[in-house]
Amino acid sequence: MMKKSLFGALLLFVLAACSPRMETVVILSTNDIHAHIEKFPQLAEAVKKCRDTVKNVILVDAGDRWTGNVYCDRAAEPRRPIIDLMNRLRYDVATFGNHEFDAGQAFLGVRTAQCRFPVVCANIVSDTATFPQPAPYAIVERGGRRIGFVASVTNYDHNNHPAGHDENFAGLTFTDAVDAVADRQSLRDECDALVALTHIGTKKDRVLAEKAPRYDVIVGGHSHDETNETVGGVLVTQTGKNLDNVGVTVLRFRGDELVEKSFRLVPLAGYEPAPAYQRMVEGYYSDPALRAKVADLRGRLDKTGLANVFTEAVREAGKADVGIYHIGGVRLDSLAGEVVAADIYNLDPFGSKLVTAEMTADELARLVKTKFNDTVNLDESHRIDIYMTTPYVIRTDERFEAQSVAFPELKPGRRYRVAMGDYIFKTYSGLDYTDGAPTGTLLTDVLDSYLRARSPLAPDNEPRQRIE
């Protein structure tokens, strides 16, 4: 019954927008798929139903197509499955997210060349042959209507480029993501509607809407929000993450004028999988090596419990006094029952490596305080971001800014051996240390060894850090 009602909800929404006196263009949108190809058959069915109902349909993606599902990310041709699925579904245009660069710009250049749809971005300047300069925009024609898509990717995360290791962006320069799109709003003169296709997060999308009011719609990504709001006349949208939903933007024209625009999220769980796409996905999931058993859990590990496992595992592998890990690097929300190799790779799909360093309690406190008060990566600030094997307390003021960090079990002045992943080591501000040494050991190997040695593992979901 639910499947029928959800399917009917999409059709009713689209059909209600159709009028014999008006022309309709429907934009179907995805963002932050994160390699969740297991849901692609439902997306394919939803797209088919819409195309069967409405003549003028455009299918777009706002970035972060991979990193998050080992059956895509570590396929025989890594990350190729999502490209093949999108090609088959006939996407019309896409942009880049920060995770497109996880395997480096040369790898991304190869995969982008395999896309049978334009991948556009207005704020990338390429100085390398391995990553050809992307076009800043694309114009898609449907039913005689010209719909422009101007795109950008965040450069607000780290060192003026998307979040990730500096070496992944060699040869690339990123201009301001909001300004790059705002500066092209005059393209509206050449189009019947102008869409910003962004991977900058809802907060920055709101800034863009205020700065560039000639855009009709912003189709966004990056912050994993479910967004449907209007800012200064600009419709701002986002579908969440992991193909939980498809976005449906309806544009209605009377003559040369865009007279109505509306947006709705449609959950994909309500659709039966399209058989041809289901067979493709089952083929990707047939790798026996990824289904090999690693360990058993005696209960469910929640997000905090998984972070605790990371910290204990790196501490042990690094022969350290303290293990630390960032919550953004824990890519599953929970884990229970039998743990297989695929789960290990899904926990850390980045190929992260173990690093050790010598740090004092004051240096650890400075690292935590700096991250808590982060003014650049706002989605990562004012929360417990850095988990540790040793407890600490963040004391805040009336503005909820960290004033001090106390470590009740560490001694002032003493140097401690600290183990961490290389993402913190390479990208976090406020990190002071001596004798920092990358080990070259993959964190997936560290997690594998830790869980095997403790199977069946009893979950520890108790938080060790708190905010006062």
TrEMBL record:
Keywords on record? Hydrolase, Nucleotide-binding, Signal
Q: Does the keyword Cell membrane apply?
A: no
InterPro entries annotated for this entry? 5'-Nucleotdase_C, 5'-Nucleotdase_C_sf, 5_nucleotidase/apyrase, Calcineurin-like_PHP, Membr_lipoprot_lipid_attach_CS, Metallo-depent_PP-like
Q: Which Pfam families match?
A: 5_nucleotid_C, LPAM_1, Metallophos
Single GO biological process annotation from the record: nucleotide catabolic process
Q: Which residues form the signal peptide?
A: 1-23
Please give the Gene3D superfamilies that the UniProt record associates with this protein. 3.60.21.10, 5'-Nucleotidase, C-terminal domain
> Residue ranges of the 5'-Nucleotidase C-terminal domain?
299-430
Q: What residue stretches are annotated with the Calcineurin-like phosphoesterase domain?
A: 27-225
Claim: Nucleotide-binding is one of the keywords in the record: yes
One GO MF term on file is: nucleotide binding
Q: Which family does it belong to?
A: Belongs to the 5'-nucleotidase family.
Q: What is this protein called?
A: Type IV secretion system putative lipoprotein virB7
